[in-house]
Amino acid sequence: NAGVTQTPKFQVLKTGQSMTLQCAQDMNHNSMYWYRQDPGMGLRLIYYSASEGTTDKGEVPNGYNVSRLNKREFSLRLESAAPSQTSVYFCASSGRDRGGELFFGEGSRLTVL
Amino acid sequence: GQQVMQIPQYQHVQEGEDFTTYCNSSTTLSNIQWYKQRPGGHPVFLIQLVKSGEVKKQKRLTFQFGEAKKNSSLHITATQTTDVGTYFCAATNTDKLIFGTGTRLQVFP
Prior knowledge:
The complex is a heterodimer of chains A (about 110) and B (about 110).
Chain A: E1 4-7, E2 10-13, E3 19-25, E4 31-38, E5 42-49, E6 56-57, E7 65-68, E8 74-78, E9 87-94, E10 102-104, E11 108-112
Parallel strand pairs in A: 2-11
Antiparallel strand pairs in A: 1-3, 3-8, 4-5, 4-9, 5-6, 7-8, 9-10, 9-11
Chain B: E1 4-7, E2 10-14, E3 19-25, E4 32-37, E5 44-49, E6 55-58, E7 61-65, E8 71-76, E9 85-93, E10 96-99, E11 103-108
Parallel strand pairs in B: 2-11
Antiparallel strand pairs in B: 1-3, 3-8, 4-5, 4-9, 6-7, 7-8, 9-10, 9-11
C-alpha cells in the first residue's frame, strides 16, 4: 500500500498561472483534506471532503478549488496563482468522518514568483 | 471558528532534559490528537485522547487531556536527538481537524 500519494512534489509557477495538485489514497478512506503549511502558521485547512461527492471549505479556501473525483482522488486547483500561495501543501485522508487519525502525503512544495 | 493555541512556539533543550508542549482551547473539545513532523517530513499521528482527564503513555511520551477538555499537554522525558521535530495538537471541529500552530523542538547532543 502506498498510503497517500501527492504529485507533483515540487512546482514553480509564475503569478497568474494555474495548476492542479493531485492526491490519491489507497486506504478506502471516506474523508480527504488539503492543508497548507507556512512557517509559524502550522497547518491550515483549505478544503475537505467528508465523502465522495461532497466538498466543504476549511479555514483558508480563497484562491483554491477542489474536486473529489472519486473515493480515491481529491485534487486542489489554483486558478490564478499568487505569491501568497507559496507554501507546502499536504493532502491527508481519514478513515472516519469525524476526527479520525489523519494519514498525510509527503507534501508538495509550491513556489509562486 | 474554533482555535487551538499551542505553546511554546520553540523549545531548545539539552539531550536528557525534559520537554513539554501545551495546547489550549477556549471551547470544550470532543477529542484531541497529537502529531509529530520531522524536519522536511510530513505529520505523523501519535495519539488521540477522548476522555476528560485521560493520560496515555508511549515510552518516554506522556499525553494528558484536561479535566475540562479544553487543554492538553505532551511531555517527553529525557529527550533524545531523535525527538527533534515539530509537535502539533489538533482538535475536531464538526467533521474537520483543526491544527495548533505547533511547537518546534530542537535537542542539542
